[in-house]
Amino acid sequence: MALRLPSKVLKHILSFIDSNEDRNSVSLVCKSWFETERKTRKRVFVGNCYAVTPAAVARRFPEMRSLTLKGKPHFADYNLVPDGWGGYACPWIEAMAAKSPSLEEIRLKRMVVTDECLERIAASFKDFKVLVLTSCEGFSTDGIAAIASTCRNLRVLELRECIVEDLGGDWLSYFPETSTSLVSLDFSCLDSEVKISDLERLVSRSPNLKSLKLNPAVTLDGLVSILRRAPQLTELGTGSFAAELKPEAFTKLSKAFSNCKQLQSLSGLWDVLPEYLPALYSVCPGLTSLNLSYATVRMPDLVELLRRCSKLQKLWVMDLIEDKGLEAVASYCKELRELRVFPSEPDLDATNIPVTEQGLVYVSKGCRKLESVLYFCVQFTNAALITIARKRPNLKCFRLCVIEPFAPDYKTNEPLDKGFKAIAEGCKDLRRLSVSGLLSDKAFKYIGKHAKKVRMLSIAFAGDSDLMLHHLLSGCQSLKKLEIRDCPFGDTALLENAAKLETMRSLWMSSCFVSFGACKLLSQKMPRLNVEVIDEHPPKTRPESSPVERIYIYRTVAGPRMDTPEFVWTLHKNPEIGVSKLAIK
Amino acid sequence: MEKVGDYDELVNLKATELRLGLPGTEETVSCGKSNKRALPDDDTEKEIESTGKTETASPPKAQIVGWPPVRSYRRNSIQTKKNESEGQGNYVKVSMDGAPYLRKIDLTVYKKYPELMKSLENMFKFSVGEYFEREGYKGSDFVPTYEDKDGDWMLVGDVPWEMFVSSCKRLRIMKGSEVKGLGCGV
Q1: Model confidence, pTM
Q2: What CDD domains does the database record attribute to this sequence (chain A) (predicted)?
Q3: DSSP B96-142
Q4: Which of A312, A347, A359, B5 could tie A326 with a disulfide, CB 3.0–4.6 Å?
């Protein structure tokens, strides 16, 4: 007879297991393990808010203390998802308020959050501690004020790149007058001015404050006064750095920074005048993370700063750094793990993008710990990709955006197939991959075959035919999220590989050749997938063969969505009588 | 050629249970090699124009929606900075009560109020009533208002156009009862 592990013992073992992937595996072993696991899981992650109902989540995890939810598809970041598509936080908050009142942490990404929702959070969770909203929208500063005033034990309040209706800076004055338990505050995405005196007082009465990210409306003077009151900060997002250069201002700033001996992360720096950069020199040797992606500073000034950052692990910068600047990074920042180079002119028209493939090659050669890359440039070569793959087999995330659609290897005029083949084959731990440039079906055959651990794949303007999609869906063993735009294929590969879609979180395809008929058929055959056809201007009649603008497919145990807007077609809203004449062409 | 071989593989795959489609339907593998997508005629503002294969030395390329893939948040920041430094454009945020999203518009693109109104109506899918000098807007639940340099909320249309463009900090399309508090022509 098999020995059973007493549930107390299992519970104790599980208390050491945080990773949800591991816990998911544990819960599949047998019923009793499932039960023990679910009763002990504290941190719940739901990657697609429509994959499961809030009630089911609350029921399964009675000890939930932290909930993370994601709403809109990733391409919503680039305006490819029309407004009003969905991703509402309210039903989740309502359900949790009723069933999980001990919830302490809520993290939402790409969701629509209203003031009412925020007020509900404030009112329902007595020991609420953490609110992080990333790329969310739909609320105003009034909602933030409600959180600030009611959540007495609030530790973390972060608004990351949200679209907030800014009704003024009063919200800051709503924090309790007595000392707060704030550890992290991020209001960098808000527009309006907050009263510096309010901010000063808040900082003074928040002894645990470690991370503070100001909005651009906070001036240099304001920054100095804040730093004086919070020299213990480990993360700082400055306000606007634009100010007439005055020697006393510079000295004050310098001194304020030099007192921040624990600063590890620096961001903000909007409009930074190069003359002020030396004020930062004292903190550079301790920095592990530096976000210069809003600093319109030229290469020589950037290099002067970066050569002092020997411990830097994460660098976000604009292409103003040029290849030469990246060469310097390669020689000074030996601890670099993550590099992101953003375009200073994100247009197709951009004439002078000062970084080329060479810049990334320098960093790949010089920074042995480099594992995550996001790089925008105009053109690339296979040779560069091959070198990068050879030098950095430890890459986990490789996102290359060649801005020119269909740009071939500019030296040989070939597609970039060989280059991406090298990446897929060489970087065996690659988890996330974005490809661009001219790519034929071959490239995707290589990726399908070799990219065994890739979970998220993004493709634009690529491929020749349905084979491309077929290679990806029949290969790529670990694929969870696939997003594709402007590629010339559709029905056949999609329908052939329908079962694969149940093993993935989601598939997004826009401006491809998927026909309406195929969407209907897929919906009918795969009840555990939600198939959404999103046409911003739905035609009055849809012939079977007409291509749809966008299709979003995701697995779900929640059944069809009930909150779709008019422009989202689902089978549930439009039950068909039998399968009509369908030709898969 | 590689493709033919693959086609054979594909045909065999079709024998699996996941062959979806009516029996006897024709099977083809490739579905058009054109990289150009024929777009339906569309009168939306954010128009997509794929330029297909690269054309060298051409006039300014039509913009492609969401490309290069830079988050709108970042794009807006850069755009604003560029405009401010080049002295071009006057971008203001526009919000509408009840709408879960904000937009930004460039006031310098318009020459007079009716143009601005039309654009707002299109953007947020509503209609504004008629403007009367003394009584404000009539005939609709929605009223366009703006915050001026002094922090006061005014009715759009109360001041001459040039004065409006130079003093408007942001726009808010208010709904219903809230509007009554606003004076006209203050």
Answers
A1: 0.81
A2: F-box_AtTIR1-like
A3: ETT-S-EEEEEGGG-SSHHHHHHHHHHHHT----EEETTTEEESSSE
A4: A359
